[in-house]
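Structure, all two chains, one model.
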Amino acid sequence: MAVKIVTNGSCVTAYIEGEIDHHNAPALRESIDSAIEKSRPKTLKLDFGGVSFMDSSGVGLVMGRYKNAARYGGEVEVLNLSRSAERIMKLSALENFVRFKKSAEAGRMN
Amino acid sequence: MINTANEIKITLTSRSVNESFSRAAIAAFVSQADPTVEELNDIKTAVSEAVTNCIVHAYPNTHGKIYITASISLAGKVLIRIRDQGLGIEDVKKAREPLYTTLGGDRAGLGFSVMESFSDKLYVRSKLGKGTTVTIEKQIWGKLKAEKAPKAQES
């Protein structure tokens, strides 16, 4: 589990890798939140292309980051969800708040 | 195809680092039934939610034991029972409602919803002060029979 954060102007992209569960979500949260604090992005992209497993902790991760980014007027995009991750995300009301994008749309190949 | 019924039992301490171990161990066991990648992932996801519930809700301030029994029947039916001796759930019906959570922060309140969505049947028994038992039931159709299996639920 790791996250690589790339800042490009007013856009911050977090490339998340490995497994997201209740155990390792806090470390991901801290890395992404410190990037939000530092860069106050207009757009925060959370790229799940490298995620090999996710449970509902992934939903909490996106929800919490949405709230934090919104405090600075930022929007959240969720990229490259696996079919299973998308199923989990769709059990919540997240889609009303964040945009889900596929890889082609997101301009990144998996 | 499996020819004989099989069963394993695992006991673990409710430490969050064991979440990945528990789902990987159950997945390794269920692999005997020759599941599809998707079936295996469904089981890992449901187990991860159930074990996380034990760690977060059953034993919030202590480290208790989590007892997991997994079995595969001759017909490829997988039963996974995850039991704790923790606080118990006051209102199981309410706890199973989507987005219901007793915790703030980043908990989404989706644990039981995900377990239900990723299994065929989910049984929850709980008694305050005694603990909770969650049983996940899932038929493994496997790679060979995947085409004959009922279509997965569209979300």
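DSSP finds four helices and five strands in chain A.
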